[in-house]
Automatic annotation (TrEMBL):
It comes from the Bacteria. This is GFO/IDH/MocA-like oxidoreductase domain-containing protein. PANTHER family: BCDNA.GH03377 (PTHR43818), DEHYDROGENASE (PTHR43818:SF7). Residues 134-237 form the GFO/IDH/MocA-like oxidoreductase domain. InterPro entries: Gfo/Idh/MocA_oxidrdct_glycsds, GFO_IDH_MocA-like_dom, NAD(P)-bd_dom_sf. It holds the Pfam family GFO_IDH_MocA_C3. SUPFAM superfamilies: Glyceraldehyde-3-phosphate dehydrogenase-like, C-terminal domain (SSF55347), NAD(P)-binding Rossmann-fold domains (SSF51735).
Amino acid sequence: MRIAFAGLATSHPFTDARTVARRAELVVWEEDAVRLARFAEEHSAATVVPTLKELLAAEPDGVVLTVPTPRTAEALGPVLEAGAPCFVNKPAAATRAGLRELDALIAPVAERVMSGSVLRFAPGFAGRRVDPAEVLAVRATVRHDVGLWATGYNPWQDDPAEGGGTMVTMGIHGVELLVALLGPDVRLVGAAGATRHYGSLRSEDTGVMALQWGNGVPGTVEILGVTEEESYTVTVHTRDAAETIVIQGGDDVLRGLGYEGTIEAFLAMVGGAPSPVPWEQTRAILDVLISAREAVPPS
């Protein structure tokens, strides 16, 4: 089996490759020489190619796509034309225009594309079910430090007009978990953001979103980008109790945070299974995030 890594724009493909390398031959394309050298050093057996066209000419069985968010559609088009199933690292879009581009590309082949937060495949969350009729309200709290952006790392991620900033890039984790539980019939009610610590950011380091599902259930997503510890918490309130689900890396981050589960789901797609994450859900998540970004001007 041959898996292609199209772009190394964030930390995720480096993490993904550690799982994929146990099962498949790697082919990689990346325009940044430093990132490419780091990948090649870790995966010396990987085949390096100079262009996306040559990557696809290698006839990969599947593609992990991680380019800067504004370039996702530009790169995804040729991948889908080549016929390979594709895992698009999050977020697939951060603007309304970007989402429209994805709609046009993905709608005809939705079962062959997967995207979103790895957390839905974390062992502590995967397979969780709730009865929406019993739910009073839900809350997701995302604790993931964004201090690296304050040093100038990957400035496009912190740019609200390109990567969406903290509201989108970190907020996706919370929205994804709630949509995985309650479904895609959801809309943004309101959002707010603030810079509480990292003053050099172009986006915010703290945010909140209010959501509501079509059946009336309200939800809240809290985003804390100033934190010593990475963790993700979902609370489901019912008449009788409040169930809390905590997702942490623990001793095995790849497994604990869902990276391994995500790649296993993607490799199942390579084997012929449909995407385990319906595009209807992914689109709803991106729509909420983009609406939040539109509602909160840069700080």
